Amino acid sequence: MLPALTRPQLMESHNDSHFKAYAMPVVIMPGPRSPANLPDLVRTAFAKARSAGDLSYFPTQVTTLLVGTIPLRFSPALANKPRAPPASPSQKPADPFANPPPSLHLCPLGPAHYLVLNKFAIVPEHFILATNEFKPQSHVLEEADLGATLACIGAYEGHGHAAGLFAFFNGGEHSGASQPHRHLQMLPVARMRDGLEEHSAWNLLADEADQLQRAPFVAFTETISLNTSPADLHEKYLKLYRRACRAVAAQTGLAWDGPEPPAEGEALISYNLAMTKNTIVVLPRLAEGAAVAERSGEPVGRLALNGTLLAGTALVKMESEWEALKDDPRGLADALRAIGIPREEFDGKAQKL
Questions:
Q1: What are the TM regions of this chain, as residue ranges (predicted)?
Q2: Residue 334 is part of which domain span?
Q3: Is 21 contained in some domain?
Q4: What CA–CA distance (Å, rounded) separates 306 from 169?
Q5: How far is it, in rounded angstroms, from Cα 133 to Cα 111?
Q6: Which of 5, 75, 100, 263 is the most buried (most CB within 10 A)?
Q7: Does some domain include residue 225?
Q8: For 112, left (φ over 0), alpha (ψ -120 to 50), or beta?
Q9: pLDDT per residue over 255-293, tens digit each?
Q10: Rounded CA gap, 241 and 169, in Å?
Q11: For 38-54, how does the pLDDT look when each residue is reduced to its tens digit (9 = 90+)?
């Protein structure tokens, strides 16, 4: 059953100088190693690139709208995000990860990946893990992709960065993916809190199992830790991905050859993935978004959602869309239901998956 919809609730929006080496816990992580100073590296590079005009950060007017348990963040500046001129039909689209500007490049990570600042940051210090060689965003993720992601998350633990790092991936046409070159995106959780009240109830949705169970859409989770090996992490991912495939198959009639969806090659479904130090989540997608309308039924725009939804975040591009959702939060609940497998339709089939 869906949670009861109520009127929206609006909430407008040190390091210890006496460092003791023996007081800092040490986490021995398997897999690739990220730089120990990664948070400082990202912070410094972001400030320098922004000052030079090499990236754009659109300050977010952070407002939390509660519909059931899902918070919506509003960012009106996204409507003015600059866009590259459209390519001619004969021109191959540029790959932003093939040769990024030196000012955005952060560092290599393992033999197959590197880190780069996001040119269009949605929060400060938004950065990306990309493959060195072109690999399709639409393919099933590999062990190395997940191991490198966990290495980034581990670098944000301790050293005054207890809030951690949220990683997400958009895979497939309905996921919100915008680039064909494989990449996962990283958002420092402390910067996601910028603009929220000090004691805001907002938290990462991916880490809130009870909230996910009450969400209008279906998502699948597995517990992980910073000590999870890349092989075990990939196994958990495949378990979630295959469960999501079976859920989509039960909803749409999707079929594949063999007893299980293949562990490599083109993914059979669209989905979002989220990862924190505690959890890996897969959200199967059936649509990128849904129409937004006023109470009168007059359409005012379209709400498009990507993997930031698993952080309890939605980016609304137009003031008119926000006003409509604020006036009638049922529109948001309807959109959340439409983008994936509706919770009420899934619960009766869950035991078969």
A1: none
A2: 43-79+100-300+308-352
A3: no
A4: 8
A5: 10
A6: 75
A7: yes
A8: alpha
A9: 998 899 999 999 999 999 999 999 999 999 999 998 888
A10: 13
A11: 999 999 999 999 999 99
